[in-house]
Design a protein that fits this description.
Helix content is 53%, strand content 19%. The protein is of the alpha+beta class. Helix 3 crosses helix 7. The protein folds into two domains: 35 residues; 106 residues, Nuclear Transport Factor 2, Chain: A (Roll), CATH 3.10.450. The chain is elongated. The protein has a four-stranded antiparallel sheet, sandwiched between helices. Strand 3 and strand 4 form a beta hairpin.
């Protein structure tokens, strides 16, 4: 009875409700922080066409974090490039990724859509995009390499 009188007189019910809301909010926020810190799985592309489409979509959206996952990893680099892997990995700075993505992004015409890739004999490829008038443009997207069953940028 004393507790009910105190709640009625001092808005204690409101305080208790606010404390419960704060407790629930802090629990949900903590769970979201833990989930966001988990490493994201890298996409694997079974064909060069799939890799090209993903590069096109990352360039259109300006998504640098996704774009970075398209490149070969440290282990893949050491397996494929051997002693040149360290030099390759040192050259892959955040600025290099941003410059590469921005270069592709600036060359894609507005209101265009992905139409495939054009493969060159030197291990490079270009995105084939069609503009809104139906003209085809080729946008160089860099080098590619097959690592096991997946295609990656290099």
């Amino acid at each position: 009875m004393v507790f009910e009188d105190w709640i009625n007189q001092t808005n204690g019910g409101l305080i208790v409700a606010l404390l419960l809301c704060f407790l629930l909010w802090s629990l949900v926020r903590r769970r979201d922080e833990v989930e966001s810190n988990r490493p994201k799985s890298r996409p694997g592309f079974l064909t060069l066409q799939e890799l090209g489409r993903a590069v096109f979509m990352a360039a259109r959206s300006g998504d640098i974090s996704t774009y970075k996952t398209f490149f070969i990893s440290g282990k893949e680099a050491s397996d494929i490039l051997g002693y040149q892997a360290n030099a390759y990995l040192e050259s892959r700075t955040n600025q290099a990724y941003m410059d590469s993505l921005l270069n592709i992004q600036q060359k894609i015409p507005e209101k265009s859509f992905y139409d495939g890739v054009k493969e060159f004999k030197n291990g490079h490829f270009a995105l084939r995009v069609k503009d809104h008038e139906g003209r085809i443009h080729h946008v160089r997207a860099g080098g590619f390499i097959q690592t096991g069953q997946f295609w990656r940028l290099r």
